[in-house]
Structures
1.
Amino acid sequence: MKKPIKFSFALICGKITIKLLKLLKRNATNLPGSVVLAICPDFLKYLEKPEKIIAITGTNGKTTVSNMILDILTDNGYDCTNNNFGGNVDTGITTALLKDSTLSGKAKKKYCVLEVDERSALRIYPYIKPDILVCTNLTRDSYKRNAHVEYIFNILNKYIPDSSHLVLNCDDIISSRLKLQNKRTYFGIAKIPGERLIPDNIIKDINICPICNAHLKYDFIRYNHIGRATCSKCDFKFPKADFDVIERTFTDDGKAHITVANEGNEYKYLIPCENTINVYNATATITALRTFGLTYEQIEASFKKISIVKSRFEIIEVNNKKIISLLAKGQNPVACSHACNIVRDNPSEKNVIMLFDDMFDAKYATENTAWIYDVDFEFLNCDSVKRIIIGGERAGDYTLRLLIAGIPQEKIFCCEHEEDVAELIDANCETTYVVFDIYNEHLRRITENNLKEKFKNAC
Ligand SMILES: [Zn+2]
């Protein structure tokens, strides 16, 4: 393919930007890609790609799955281009590929693992054709940006290449129906005896049969619309899992023993997962890597060496008091409802500090608080939750929502300055949850440190 001069110029400018950022000791996440795409918008068309590409998309879990896939491939000697430094839109993906390309635009590495934002599909897949594409799940998320889940489904369905082998969640009636003509391998989790299911979420993103519009009947609902459904009228039913988790036991140190049924055999893994959501992520990882060609033994051995990054879930103990930090992803009602469910499942008496960052929305346009009415804040209406402390300019909105959830007003505390939330906790509680958003990691750290100081000084 003849490459235009602007491509070579963009490539050199991108490389210089990466060098400059390195000199300034700053991470090259999106900026080099932005520079390149400003000069040559179809840059990715001309850049040589690695030979084998695994892409990961979906509403929840894509970062965790990408990290696990990358860690396991690296552990098995595969050197992969990747964007696990953070940029999952076109600019970040361009930066990742640019970093590992030569000055003539050739790929330095043979393998590639890319996390891809769902809405970026139209800017990525015309140029990058993943050999394996994992979709973890699709649920409503960031309404102003993503509209409804069907809008995102349609984007993916239109732009995912016909050649990609899909790895899909059979327990998600929505994403399991992506690109029905493509090759596909399904993963899922069968109903586990004694499992605590969550059939009482407020939202379900699909209620009717995608074939005949009759009501769906669920064999079981694990959470939101994730579960195993059949149609009440036609013969539509959830797809059969090729990799099906049939046993799952959690250990006390945040891990899980799982048994995965595949082609009549059973395979046991010890995985670094403390909840069912992460068991889905690990099963997606196993399915993608087995499809890629890794053996059970290779994956099983590597899983023993990896851990879930502490930025998402962390327990700190000071003077017999527990601080549990939990990533909840603001504007994402499914992720937030999970956090509320984890809090209610812990029987100890607790404070819940909520640090959500909605302000990036409000900076540019009208505010959108619709999503907080889809979060199951009702789960926090239980005796063991002693106080809920909310910080920031949206505290009033959250207070109204918590009151609608039936939470007594005397349990709700508002704090104008988010840095000061730790001062409002009930110090008698054994546990304090810090539920934070992906965009306010700094506030989470400040709050954790303030809590640590408070508990240290208490003795
Ligand atoms: Zn039907």
Note: The pocket of zinc ion is lined by residues 209, 211-212, 214, 231, 233-234, 236 (CB under 6 Å).
2.
Amino acid sequence: MADLTLQHTVREWLADPEGNAALTEMLAAQGQTTKALAPVKRMSFEKLIKVSRGKFSREAADQLVEQVRAAKAAGGTTAPATSPGSGAATGDTRAETPEPAEFVEEITPGRFTGQTVVVTGAASGIGRATASRVAREGGRVVAVDMTAAGLEELRAELGGSGRLPDGAEIVPVTADITDDAGVARILEAAGGSVHGLANVAGIMDRFAAVHTVDDATWDRVFAVNVTGTMKLMRAVVPGMLAAAEGRIVNVSSEAGLRGSASGAAYTASKHAVVGLTKNAAFMYTGTGVRVNAVAPGGVATGMSPQDVDEFGMGRVQSAMGLMADIAVPEQLAASISFLLSADSTNINGQVLASDGGWSAA
Ligand SMILES: NC(=O)c1ccc[n+]([C@@H]2O[C@H](COP(=O)([O-])OP(=O)(O)OC[C@H]3O[C@@H](n4cnc5c(N)ncnc54)[C@H](O)[C@@H]3O)[C@@H](O)[C@H]2O)c1
């Protein structure tokens, strides 16, 4: 193959002997193998740089391009080539097939016109993509996060370029969803009616199994993922019941569907989100208030585990072989905004796995 560039996909890099050798060497230095690239095999290096948020830098990518160019000029490597599309290095054993097109976000104009939607976790990742989408579809978005800078960035990005339709707005509220005073400020910013609530804010654990989980992690993960989610639901439901209209979307996780995707604290918290969702859906059946959840698989966001527990991470990694492609936050915003919209009519108490099929494996 000719020289590799940032426009080539991970799969093309792996199929090239020199590209494969360069990636193998880089990953070995991090204690990993090319199997770690399975969920991003269809991404170009350019896209990987964008979604990795600094974990795969442009400098590192440029260095790989240069390393491969030099290796080819020197006559190439003796490393065995992986045939294009065979995917042997990433555990994908399907025969070569055409690459599916990348997701392109398509706005539904006016879908949220006249509605106020509270979106938590709006400074980053899935929450930010959801807030952006709802606002560009006409909604007045109360964008909540603990990180003020990210909220301002979102507002500047949307307002600054004049992308928002009439009546649409980003109302940033810097608040911790576990704090009652913060929740009260969110409700105040929302004003009269809240038509939709997307409970997206959440935090990970350290992948610790129950015999090593520490109290601080357990308490904080439950406080944010479960108690914070409940507090916002509790705050908005009375108004929704009075209006006989409202849609709540909670964000669970693959870890809310099975036991093999994270540590004990996060897994238990995301199962609790499923329980909270189903209970509320049952309680409010027939009132006009509907409550559903989305369970994302792997998504390229700011979320990354800190101070990882080796035993737990090892167990989780051993079960990740069939993980689907990693998604971009806009793909999750597509699922969440559907459930937030009137088009999800008749869907209540459901957990929508938005994971490319991972949970079907
Ligand atoms: N990224 C993934 O692969 C993945 C997979 C499954 C589920 N999820 C879930 O998706 C949701 C969004 O995660 P993300 O990947 O976009 O992560 P992210 O870290 O990019 O965004 C989460 C946001 O929530 C905010 N937040 C955290 N605690 C808060 C609090 N107490 N009050 C207010 N804001 C708070 C953070 O500041 C951050 O901006 C989470 O609930 C997460 O558990 C993510």
Note: The chain has two domains: 10-80, 116-360.
